[in-house]
Structures are given as C-alpha cells and as structure tokens.
Specification:
EC 5.2.1.8; 434 residues; four-stranded antiparallel sheet; Trigger_fact/SurA_dom_sf; 53% helix; Chitinase A, domain 3; 11 strands
Length: 434
C-alpha cells in the first residue's frame, strides 16, 4: 500500500521537476490570494503552477485539455484538498526525517540524470534561484501528506479474522499463497447434443484421468471433445473465472458444466499442493527490565538505575524479583519481566540486535532504546514455523490495500467538508457557477 502511494508521489514530484523553471516566474508575477483554507492561503501563482502541471500531465498522456474555466476549478479543488491535508499535517506535527527526505529528493535527482544532491541543487538553481529549495519543500510536504494518509486511513480500515480466513479460501488468496493445482481441462463443442455428451464426459472424468481416451471415446457425430492436462500450475496462472470454479473442489472432484461461447467446459482437480517455501524463523524467549526517564527521573538517573540493577543481577540476585519490583514496563513486570517468545521484526532494532547477540542464560549489558534503558535475558531459543502467521499478515495487507483507495476518498471528502474554505474569485467558485 505504501508502495502504491509513493509511486504516485514520485510521479508528481518528477512532474514538478519538469516544471521547476516556471515556479519562480509564477511566484514573482502573480501573488494575489485566490482562496483561504483554514489558516493558510492559496496564491494565484500556486494556481497557475498547478494548471500548468495538469496540462503537462494531460499532454503527456495524449488526453484532451478541458476548457480553461473547468481546468482552473479542477486545479483549485486539488490545491484546496492539498492545503486541507497540510493543515492536518501541522496539527499532528508530522515531519519527514532528514534521511527519508534526502532519499526522496535523490530519487527525483536520479530521474533527472543527477548523481548527487549537490549536483542536483546546482542544476536547478541555475534555472532560477531557490528552485531546489522550493522543490525540496514540496517533496517534504508530499512525504508528510503520505504519512498522514497512512496513519489516518489505515486507522479506518477494519479487517476481522473472519475476513482473513475467507480471503485465504478464495482463488486470489490461494494464488497469493503460491498454492498450485493439477487440473484436467476438457472442452466439448459441436452443433447439437453437446449437453448430453458433456454430462457423459463429466461422469467419465470421475473414474479416469486418461483424457486422451475420453477424447477418442466421445468425439463422434459432429461433437468434438478436446482435453488438456494442465499439470501443476499456480492459481494465478489460470483464468480467474476458471480458478474460482477449481478452488472449492476436493481432489478427484469435477466442476459443474461450464457453458461458454465456444462450447461446454469441464474441469477436474487431480491434486493440489501448497507453496513449498516455509517461513521458519528463530524465536527468542526473552525477559527484560526497563527504566524510563520521566518528569521525576532524569535520563542520567535512569542510566544510573539500570546500571545498579545490572550489577545486582551480576551479583546473583533474581531477575524475576528485580523485574517485578523495578521495571517500568507494566505488562512484562507483572510476569517477572517475561516477553514470551519474540520473533524477528517485532521489537525495535536496538532491542532485537541485543537480543540476538545475548547467549542463552546470560544477561545483556545495559542498552538504550527510544523507550528508555534496558537489560535483558534470553532464556531459550527455537526454530518456529511461522508460515500461517505470515500468510495471515499478507492477507491483511492485501485486504487493506483493497480498501485503502475507497477509505482515502472518503477521508478526503470529510476533511474537505470540515475545512473552512473561502474562494475569493467568484469565477472559480463551483457553487456560484452552477
């Protein structure tokens, strides 16, 4: 899902790059306010720039450019929606980190043939002063909007365990899992009596997989029977309408007759097999003690406390007692510091790295994460088949992506309707021009 959104983002910023030479011109020549959105304004230079981008995009796609007034209204609507989102960005204080921003700008730089940010900046500022800064700010806004959308829209998407289970039973779910089926495919065609012959073929398939013999036996009197042993194939390689018929079958069963334009089709499921690749992961049975800085505990005091606890553990004191007494993680403290079996990717990177490097039965040295100071023990390790859990996670991701666009559209409509918008130019106000 994130990938889909970023794909649109980079397309938009590449378009901005193509038009970067005009950005300063618009800003200098026309600066009157055309609309007010909450606490911000949209300038005529912003509108002119967006119109130019829309025209550029339509021309690149070889699509007709609509009448000027409609184009202006469409461009203004886009800017209002964008500004309403930026108001939300400010409200929730969402900012891209410098690393992510540099990576995003570097992608646009690479698209333009520049191999470094410095070369890219020189290239743009040679067109017009501050062009690089303007584009970088726009990319930062796009990244912040994208993060806002992920947070807000994903919180609206609800996927139940039953939704996941139902999806995994569909052809799309089976195909996504990499499951394969061995299918026999028979087509009966002719001028007349093909329904009767098709029923006979279906009955024969129940008792035999010898499709060549079945073809020979039932091809007669203007009726042609043609069969194919499709072997093992991923369900994604089978036409969706046929895959939907095969998925619910038990091994050895045939489909009902499938009338289509070129005759009647019958399929038999000979065998099925799941994806051969298993998700075997190392798990660590882990317990920890956390000391968090707070209003009454300074970062230095938190470090001193964890060092004291570490020394007591090294001296032989019981980990469970110290965790229950001192740990600021209430969930694990109630269970003697236990986090249970921990899989890779669940904990923050600093915690995971220390967990993996700590021998079973040993206590780690104190270390810091975003949550505070920790010591941990790994009491056991095991190799666990997480295939089913990973399949469920993948199904939730696919179902979430399916719902994302519709939920995004609904959310955008809500923030647009809730925003205070005043359009200064009556010619641009859709309500006044209906």
């Amino acid at each position: 899902m994130k990938t889909i959104q970023l794909k649109h983002f980079f397309k938009a910023t590449a378009l901005a790059l193509a038009l970067s030479s005009s950005m300063t011109t618009f800003a200098q020549s026309k600066n009157e306010v055309v609309a007010v959105v909450d606490n911000s304004v949209i300038l005529k230079s912003d509108l002119e720039q967006n119109i130019a981008e829309i025209k550029h995009q339509l021309e690149a796609q070889k699509k007709p450019v609509p009448p000027e007034q409609y184009l202006q209204q469409q461009a203004l609507d886009q800017l209002i929606i964008r500004q309403a989102q930026l108001e939300q960005v400010k409200r929730y204080n969402i900012k891209p980190d410098e690393k992510s921003l540099n990576e995003a700008v570097m992608k646009v730089a690479n698209q333009s043939g520049s191999q470094s940010l410095e070369a890219f900046q020189q290239k743009l500022d040679a067109i017009a002063p501050s062009t690089y800064e303007s584009l970088r700010n726009r990319i930062a806004e796009d990244l912040a909007i994208n993060r806002l959308r992920q947070q807000m829209v994903m919180s609206r998407i609800k996927i139940s365990d039953q939704d996941v289970e139902n999806f995994l039973k569909t052809p799309q779910g089976q195909a996504a899992l990499g499951n394969q089926v061995h299918v026999l495919h028979v087509r009966i065609s002719g001028e007349k009596n093909i329904e009767k012959v098709a029923e006979q073929v279906k009955a024969a398939l129940k008792d035999s997989n010898d499709v060549a013999a079945i073809d020979k036996k039932f091809t007669a009197n203007g009726v042609k029977v043609e069969s194919a042993d499709m072997g093992f194939r991923n369900l994604s390689e089978i036409p969706s309408e046929l895959a939907a018929r095969v998925t619910p079958l038990e091994v050895g069963q045939t489909t009902d007759l499938i009338p289509v334009r070129d005759g009647i089709h019958v399929l038999k499921l000979v065998d099925r097999k799941g994806a051969e690749q298993k998700a075997i992961v190392s798990q660590y049975k882990t317990r920890h003690i956390l000391i968090q800085p707070s209003e009454v505990v300074s970062p230095d005091n938190a470090k001193q406390q964890i060092n004291s606890i570490y020394n007591r553990l090294k001296a032989g004191e019981d980990f469970a007692v110290l965790a229950s007494t001192f740990s600021n993680d209430p969930g694990s403290a109630r269970d003697s510091g236990s986090l249970g079996w921990v899989s890779p990717g669940v904990m923050v990177p600093e915690f995971e790295a220390r967990m993996k490097s700590t021998p079973v039965g040993q206590t780690s040295e104190p270390f810091q994460t975003q949550f505070g100071w920790h010591v941990l023990q790994v009491t056991d390790t095991r190799q666990q088949d997480m295939t089913h859990e990973y399949q469920e996670r993948m199904a939730r991701q696919i179902l979430g992506e399916r719902q994302f666009d519709s939920e995004l559209d609904s959310w955008l409509r809500e923030i647009r309707s809730n925003a205070f918008v005043e359009i200064k130019d009556p010619n641009l106000d859709r309500k006044k021009n209906k």
